[in-house]
From TrEMBL:
GO cellular component terms, semicolon-separated: cell outer membrane
Domain TonB-dependent receptor-like beta-barrel: 238-737
Protein name from the UniProt record: TonB-dependent receptor
Keyword Ion transport: no
Family: Belongs to the TonB-dependent receptor family.
Species lineage: Bacteria, Pseudomonadati, Bacteroidota, Sphingobacteriia, Sphingobacteriales
Keyword entries, A-Z: Cell outer membrane, Membrane, Receptor, Signal, TonB box, Transmembrane, Transmembrane beta strand, Transport
Organism encoding this protein: Sphingobacterium olei
GO biological process: siderophore transmembrane transport
Gene3D superfamilies hit by this protein: Carboxypeptidase-like, regulatory domain, TonB-dependent receptor, beta-barrel domain, TonB-dependent receptor, plug domain
Gene Ontology molecular functions: siderophore uptake transmembrane transporter activity
Primary subcellular site in the record, as a coarse category: membrane
Length: 764
């Protein structure tokens, strides 16, 4: 057994204290002491790699052949861009997933832990709404408990949310509620824009959000934080981590408690006691442990439990008041074994179990009558075997195969139903010459409901010059309708609407008509959707340039074109005398999302960083344009001006696009560090152009006379003050300083002011 010891210095020969040292492939981690020294003991003979990072310095990577104990000295150069945390974590893949996300054919955005801290965000939706090309919206049929995400025109239905590479369950009408996820214990977030079915399967037709949690403890340490403010919002977090067995193992644990009183964005029609976003409490606990059982093998275990309780009151008058309560529970368990063979082949075996359960009950308060009750459960068991192998320096293969069994139970369904899936994938990275990297991916998914689908992707990166990188990618995706879209009958008493699966809509509407409950029905749409829901397919295309003229400036521009066949959309098929609207699901034969994004970051001074991001988006159902051009049913109906009463024949220019999509979105950020006071100021503006909320003029497509959410600006500010050698941090958060609200933005509160502190203890 051998030893590596060394010292880390700056250019003047001064010791760098608390620098992070990572030893690969063992992933041993330590910190330098007050003299800049570090050491690793009980090592085997072989070739290792040292990675060194410290805030304010450029990171170092150095190969180190080890045949006997050795001592080294490392010198770090100061970084001009010292305002942001320098971390090698961004370049490291997840420890429990061999897929290298950053080499995906589709564009990838990485959000670091430090960026999240500087935003002062508490929930995942708050992080997402500040990213270029990403919008946070409330799904119309999902109700106010469905705060979803939209990426390059793809709604939340098409974006897979994963934690440590494993998919999360629990969608409301296909929409995953991002506010369920606390940002506690997050190391980084990987966002893939565009078809990602090649990497993750069906639900990633439009993109993926992969949350990587903390792992690999550096030293025994603990962190506690507390925030309190507007709407009685309280966020409390406790984290702890420690290595054990001489750095061969590590344990990380975190717990979070969050509560808020909710709010009402529709005071014009609802009484003061009402809320359009419910008060709720949320508890989440997560733990992870890893242990290197042999020289080449590491075993890992992860567990997560979260529960959210919410209660909502909708009162239209003294006599018409309804209260609904809902409880959501998440359980996630996983185990993995990572082994590297002498040939260089790396193997990853993974098992995953997750269960989501929700129970809702609503009652008319004044009458004491039960209005509705629903219970839904969903669980998945998944096994996966991954391999990574590089036969030569210029070629690398990452592949795998596996399967899952998904069971759904619901009192509204005829029986307990299951979905069985098998899959295999392969991603190849090839560098034919210096400066060029190609990525080819193939994935085959088979289900017992929609048979098999092949999802290919291809990516190309070319360094035109040392400062200019060209990127292009194309990828195919698919998405099979879930059982809720086909079979569920769901009544939301708070919002007074009914959602019926496509396979049951004809029988439900007929029963209402026979009983005299039906006030109107859209026969054309009803015949179109009834029992006819098909799997969706997409083809995503991206091209872009990344320009780094110097260490202070980075810019990126990209254009995208996503073609979707059979895109599933919510559609109104009727109304009743008991409640306002009946929704179901239909396929749009041809739809397209196209546009471009521009982002830039400029380090104006050592203390000031400026950045901006802009997206232009067109999202349209091409069948609407075809119908208008040909002058045939159903989209050839007249355009009616509700102000003047004038009517005219429609033109192609009258069609605005698909609901919830803004043409223009702009993000601006200024980050300033005032070193004498050890303070950080982070000012962000999220500017969103108007977007259509709902078709109201009865011509069945969106035109300028329909209902829109107006152009608006969300201005956010976070101020940090560090004390006691950065162990204690005081934080002031001001979100939506301009106090913008709108009745059709159910999940956007008014001005929120929070204050709090955090304390980090670390064993010296």
């Amino acid at each position: 057994m051998y030893q590596i010891k060394g010292r880390v210095l700056d250019k003047s020969g001064n010791a760098i204290v608390q620098a992070t040292i990572i030893l690969l492939p063992d992933r041993h981690t330590t910190l330098t002491d007050k003299e800049g020294r570090f050491s690793f003991d009980k090592l085997y003979e072989g070739t290792y790699q040292l990675r060194v990072s410290s805030v304010g310095y450029y990171p170092i990577e150095q190969d180190l052949p080890l045949k006997k104990s050795s001592s080294i000295e490392l010198t770090m150069r100061p970084s001009e861009a010292s305002i942001t945390e320098v971390s090698v974590q961004e370049r490291r893949r997840s420890v429990d997933n061999l897929i290298k996300t950053e080499n995906s054919a589709m564009p990838v955005k990485i959000i670091t832990r430090r960026e999240i801290e500087l935003m002062g965000s508490r929930r995942l939706d708050e992080v997402m709404k500040e990213q270029t090309g990403i919008a946070v919206v409330n799904d119309i049929a999902g109700g106010s408990r469905a705060v979803g995400v939209q990426i390059q025109g793809f709604s939340s239905n098409y974006v897979m949310v994963l934690i440590d590479g494993q998919p999360m369950l629990g969608r409301n009408s296909g929409n995953f509620d991002l506010s369920r996820i606390s940002v506690t214990n997050i190391e980084r977030i990987e966002i893939i824009k565009g078809a990602s079915s090649c990497l993750y399967g069906s639900d990633a037709l439009g993109g993926a959000i992969n949350i990587i949690t903390r792992h690999g403890a550096v030293a025994p340490q603990a962190h506690a934080s507390f925030l309190y403010g507007t709407l009685n919002t309280l966020d409390a977090t406790l984290e702890a981590e420690t290595p054990f067995a001489n750095q061969r193992g590590s344990v990380v644990f975190s717990g979070n408690y969050y509560r808020t009183d909710g709010f009402n964005t529709d005071s014009r029609y609802l009484t003061e006691e009402s809320t359009t976003f419910p008060p709720y409490t949320n508890y989440s606990f997560q733990g992870r442990t890893r242990y290197r059982i042999t020289k080449n093998g590491t075993v890992g275990f992860t567990g997560r439990y979260a529960v959210r309780n919410s209660k909502m009151i909708n009162a239209w008058s003294d006599d018409i008041t309804i209260e609904d309560t809902q409880t959501d529970q998440d359980v996630n368990l996983s185990a993995s074994y990572d082994h590297t063979f002498h040939s260089g082949l790396r193997s990853m075996t993974r098992y995953y179990f997750t269960r989501f359960h929700t129970a809702m009950q609503a009652q008319w308060l004044r009458q004491g009558i039960l209005a509705d009750a629903e219970e839904f459960g969903q669980q998945v068991q998944r096994v996966e075997q991954q391999f990574a192998y590089s036969p030569i320096r210029t070629v690398k293969f990452t592949g795998g195969l596996g399967g899952s069994i998904e069971i759904m139970d619901n009192q509204d369904l005829d029986e307990e139903r299951s979905l069985n899936t098998a899959f295999a994938f392969l991603q190849t990275e090839w560098k034919p010459i210096d400066g060029i990297l190609t990525t080819l991916g193939l994935r085959y998914d088979y289900t017992n409901v929609y048979d098999g689908r092949l999802s290919p992707s291809f990516g190309l990166q070319y360094h035109i010059s040392p400062t200019l990188l060209a990127k292009a990618g194309v990828g195919a995706g698919f998405k099979a309708p879930d059982y809720k879209m086909r079979y569920q009958v769901f009544y939301n008493p708070a919002a007074n609407y009914l959602v019926v699966g496509s396979d049951r809509i004809a029988d439900v509407i007929q029963a209402m008509e026979n009983s005299g409950e039906l006030s109107f029905k859209n026969s054309y749409m009803l015949n179109l959707v009834s029992g006819n829901l098909q799997a969706e397919k997409s083809l995503s295309n991206n091209v872009g340039l990344v320009w780094n003229p110097n260490s202070k400036w980075q810019s990126e521009v990209s254009a995208f074109y996503h073609r979707i066949n059979n895109q599933i959309n919510t559609i109104i098929v009727g109304g009743t005398t008991s409640f306002s609207t009946v929704y179901s699901y239909r396929n749009l034969p041809k739809a397209v999302n196209k546009g471009f994004e521009v982002s830039t970051t400029y380090q104006a001074t050592v203390d000031l960083q400026l950045s901006a991001g802009y997206q232009y988006l067109i999202a349209k159902d091409l069948s609407v344009l075809d119908s208008i051009r040909a002058g045939v049913w159903p989209y050839n109906q007249t355009i009616n001006n509700p102000v003047t009463g004038e009517s005219r024949e429609p033109t192609v220019a009258d069609y605005w696009g698909i609901e919830d999509r803004s043409r223009h979105m702009l993000n601006l950020k200024a980050l300033y560090e005032y070193r004498p006071w050890e303070m950080n100021f982070n000012l962000r503006a999220n500017i969103r152009g108007k977007y259509p909320f709902q078709e109201t003029t009865s011509n069945q497509f969106i035109d300028k006379y329909d209902e829109f959410v107006p152009y608006h600006v969300l201005l956010n500010l976070t101020i940090e003050k560090n004390l006691w050698n950065r162990k204690l941090t005081l934080r002031l958060i001001a979100d939506n300083l301009l106090n913008f609200t709108h009745r059709n933005m159910l999940g956007q509160p008014g001005r929120i002011i929070l204050g709090g502190l955090s304390y980090r203890w670390m064993k010296e």
